[in-house]
Amino acid sequence: MSTQKMNLTERYRALTRDLDWDYSYADRKEAFPYEDFEGIKITDWSKWEDPFRLTMDAYWKYQAEKEKKLYAIFDAFAQNNAHLNVADVRYVNAIKLFLTGVTPLEYQAYQGYAHVGRQFGGAGARVACQMQCIDELRHVQTQIHAMSHYNKFFDGFQDWSHMHDRVWYLSVPKSFFEDARTAGPFEFLVAISFSFEYVLTNLLFVPFMSGAAHNGDMATCTFGFSAQSDEARHMTLGLEIVKFLLEQHEDNVPIVQKWIDKWFWRGTRLLSLVAMMMDYMLPNKVMSWKEAWEVYFEEAGGALFKDLARYGIKMPEFVKTTEKEKEHVSHQAWWIFYNYNHAAAFHTWIPSDEELDWLSAKYPDTFDKYYRPRWELARKLEAEGKRFYTAGLPQLCQTCQIPMAFTEMSDPEQICYRLSEYEGEKYHFCSDGCQHVFDQEPEKFVQAWLPVHQIFQGNCGGPSVEEILTDYYNITLGQDNLDLKGSPDEERWKKWKKVS
């Protein structure tokens, strides 16, 4: 063996090429049974490249350095009671939604990459999946540690994993990843590595982590940007994955296009929760959801799809719909939670006059016409002691699982309602995009676990909604939810800050 020290490129090649082997006593197709059934054709796995050419020893070195700095900030945050430095107690509710909605997705991503990495015949793809699944597990751990400090002082953090599996609005992100994990290995990569982590990830992490910084939460901000350095690597790899599939065989093009169409739409529906956080839950706002969408998708994504056009890839279907939805989706989502807040695990509130003016300025063509009157009515009713909660359980979209409360984008005063039939049963959808996704794979989506359906079928305890919330969701009624005004969180905050 040569004693000459290898450079990074040589070490990466040794890891991803020279350690692979031919199978002399087993059939290769039996060793990788899921590699063919999606219809993807791979002619040469050696063409797979990781732009970072990361090896395991380099990976451990980089991650260890990041962990030292990250946990030093966590310690300083806790020792200095830095929860008192956040802008407003309202901000903590955005953290509750992030912990229950996003952190468990990191664990699903860890499990997903650990699974699909085993299914690929190419050593380079297996190594890339191995490193990314470790990244995702690290993200779970750092997010929990960053937010654990808040659990000592605020309600609603106590059972985030249990809630993620059961609470109605958390089935939106949960079903997204379960759909990806039950797809084939190549669709999983297009769904998570490309559509979510390359096309849409900046809309989740960058505005939200900037929001954490603007609101004085240095622990969340620091873990976010620590994770974002991994996400930058994932993004680069996600683009390389799609190019690899498209360059392997021309028959792969329509399959990849179909997956991009599906996962782009599913991703935009998932991000409606982020849109709501940006426009309504951050006391100190960074940018509006509309601005974020224009910067991170319309500008950056537009350039991406121009580049992919040489392979025959087009802009995702329903992208025209998203151009209209950026004006409406955050307002409609927050209104849903204001109406159903007695069944959620965080608090809601009516925007202040200053915030209404900010929204009017950011959405000059739509907010004053469609949404300001709603909030002014809600404020009037609250002043008269008539604050209302919608008592019934909402009908959920069969695909995205969001309550059927989004409107026609051509007529924001009309609820959007679509219907498909499959094997004699009727299924309902919030949009053309969700109906299209269902119609492509009805045999899969008829099996969706819809929380409201499960409640009506008696599978979630009961019989009353109150018993389901306390015994099945583990929500402490009146403490974890309802209006922020008068809540225990607000009372403690006022006491700490010595305000009336």
Write up this protein:
The chain is 61% helix and 3% strand. Strands 1-2 form a two-stranded antiparallel sheet. Strands 3-4 form a two-stranded antiparallel sheet. The longest helix has 31 residues. The mean pLDDT is 92.
Brief account:
The chain has 500 residues and is mainly alpha-helical. The chain is built from 22 helices and 4 strands. The strands form 2 sheets. A two-stranded antiparallel sheet has the order 1-2. Strands 3-4 form a two-stranded antiparallel sheet.
Shape, per Cα inertia axes: globular
Biggest β-sheet strands, sense, barrel: 2 strands, antiparallel
Unreliable spans: none
**Strand portion, in percent?**
under 5%
String of helices and strands: HHHHHHHHHHHHHHHHHEEEEHHHHH
Structural class: mainly alpha
| Structural Rg | 24 Å
Pfam families: Phenol_Hydrox, YHS
GO molecular function, one term: monooxygenase activity
Keywords: Monooxygenase, Oxidoreductase
InterPro entries: Ferritin-like_SF, Phenol_Hydrox, RNR-like, YHS_dom
Blueprint of the fold:
Blueprint: H1 8-18, H2 28-31, H3 56-79, H4 91-101, H5 103-117, H6 123-151, H7 160-166, H8 171-181, H9 185-214, H10 218-248, H11 252-270, H12 272-281, H13 289-308, H14 319-325, H15 329-339, H16 353-362, H17 367-383, E1 407-408, E2 411-415, E3 418-422, E4 425-429, H18 432-440, H19 442-445, H20 451-456, H21 465-472, H22 488-497
Antiparallel strand pairs: 1-2, 3-4
Helix pairs in contact: 3-6, 3-10, 4-7, 5-6, 5-8, 5-9, 6-10, 9-10, 9-11, 9-13, 12-15
